[in-house]
Amino acid sequence: MANVPSNLRYSNDHEWCRVEGEYAVVGITDFAQSELGDIVFVDIPTLGETLNVGDVFGSIEAVKTVSDAFTPLSGEVVAVNEAIEADASLVNKDPYGEGWMVRIKIADATEVEALLDAEQYKALIEK
Prior knowledge:
The protein has helices spanning 30-36, 82-86, 90-93, 118-125, and strands at residues 9-10, 15-20, 23-28, 39-43, 50-51, 56-62, 66-70, 75-80, 102-106. The protein is of the alpha+beta class and 127 residues long. The chain has a single domain, classed as CATH 2.40.50.100. It has a 6-stranded antiparallel beta sheet. A hairpin with a 4-residue loop joins strand 1 and strand 2 (15-20).
């Protein structure tokens, strides 16, 4: 069973979002990292870009596949986790902590309400 912290919001694309004032920290969920398998490389070329909900902010390369990572909220990518660029396995080890991916300056706070809460996300992945 995947870990689904109750203090986060989730997208249908398996990204999580932790709102901190006018910013959001974003990563992929425990479920997503377990489905991908051993992550070997994370590429996030969107630092400084303003993205809309659903835009690709980066890619995640696992041993057997490559997957896009989508932004769950509109806004400017103001920080990228350099630690995962050096050690991509942090996404597998600690997807909600040290394995975070980007920090976004939220453009429209009302979009947060459209994201899934923990119970809704659990229902999505248990189908």
